[in-house]
Amino acid sequence: INFRTYKKSFKNHKTYYNPPEKWKVFENTHETIIDKETFDIVQHIRENHRTRTNLGEMPLLSGMVYCADCGAKLYQVRGNGWTYDKHYMVCASYRKKSKQTCSSHQIRNIVLEKLILQRINDMINLVHNSESEFVELVTKQTKENTNRKLKEAKKEYEIAMARINKLDSIIQHLYEDNIEGKISDDRFSKLSVNYEIEQADLTSKIKDLDIYINEETNKLVNVESFVTAVKKYTHIETLDCEVLRELVSKVLVYKVEKIDGKRQQRIDVIFNGLEGIKLDK
User: Fold this and answer.
1) Angle, to 10 degrees, between the axis of helix 109-129 and the axis of helix 131-179?
2) Residues 6 or more apart from 136 whose CB is under 8 A from it?
3) Rg of the chain's alpha carbons, rounded to an integer?
4) Contact between 134 and 126 (Cβ < 8 Å)
5) For the whole model, what pTM was predicted?
6) Nearest to 92, CA basis, from 105, 80, 82, 110
7) What one-character-per-residue DSSP string does 204-231 give?
8) Share above pLDDT 90 across residues of the chain, in percent, rounded to a whole number
9) What tens digit of pLDDT does each residue of 20-76 get?
10) In whole angstroms, what is the distance from residue 250 CA to residue 48 CA?
11) What do you get for the CA distance between the two ends of the chain, in Å?
12) C-alpha distances in angstroms, 214 versus 154, 156, 206?
């Protein structure tokens, strides 16, 4: 990373810090110590750090389970002396803020871990038995998802640019009306300030969209890397932290619903790099 600091002139030796948006990252300038796959896995683990409970324990699923409705993490609940089959997770918004904010989304750890283990083994079987079809499906859907996102972003970009150009014209006419005495200086000042604020917001939005469009255009899901990680396993008997974080990005828990009188709860296991990819069951 370069340009973290700068000096105002060669006469001034004081060092000033640049904001992060002015930093420049030059990748692959040195020989790598570890491969990119391992690096990405470590970064994923760092981003989803596990938090110890008040009893000093480190839950297996800590930092990985999210409410599918409000987006909050699921909170670990257990009591001193409880057996493990009684431990459960609940939506943090529901527990900490207000029951009106979200529903509980409660699910027992043992049930969730069993389901995740089954999904992982299903993925292992899929990759081992139908690798080429799997790679083709993921690649196709990735392109479709990327194209859809790009289309939406480019449309927003065009609308924002058109509005900026329109505002330039409006501000120019305001200036001319002010010069000709059609509107007062005070009125001109208030109107122009509002338009310029809107224009500044749009300019910032365009910069963000430009970055997003470039990132999406250059983004390629490294499905081969995921396949390599999966093929290290033939069958997993017990779920552990290493396997979980190597293969799974996050888990989404939906609220409980009754369908035909039966209690049902949807769970989505999102694998690393495969978010938005739909696989046949």
Assistant:
1) 110
2) none
3) 26
4) yes
5) 0.64
6) 105
7) HHHHHHHHHHHHHHH----HHHHHHHHT
8) 48
9) 666 666 565 556 666 555 555 555 555 555 455 555 556 789 889 999 999 999 989
10) 9
11) 44
12) 11, 14, 12
Enumerate the domain spans of the chain. 32-133+225-271, 147-216
Q: Which pair of tokens denotes residue 54? A: 């008040």
Please check the confidence at residue 186 and state whether its pLDDT lies above 80: yes
What does the block give as tokens for 237? 């008997």
Which amino acid would we find at residue 195? Y
Q: How far is CA 209 from the centre of its chain?
A: 16
Those residues whose C-beta lies under 8 Å from the C-beta of residue 231, and which sit 6 or more positions away, are 127, 128
Token pair listed for 52: 């110890």
**Residue 91: count of CB within 10 angstroms of its CB:** 28
CA distance 203 to 206: 5
Q: How many Cα atoms occupy the beta-carbon half-sphere of 63 within 13 Å? A: 16
Retrieve residue 72's tokens: 């909050």
Tracing tokens 């290493």 back to the chain, one arrives at 242
Contacts of 227 (CB under 8 A, 6+ apart): 127, 131, 134, 135
pLDDT of residue 247: 94
The CB density around residue 36, as the number of other CB atoms within 10 Å, is: 12
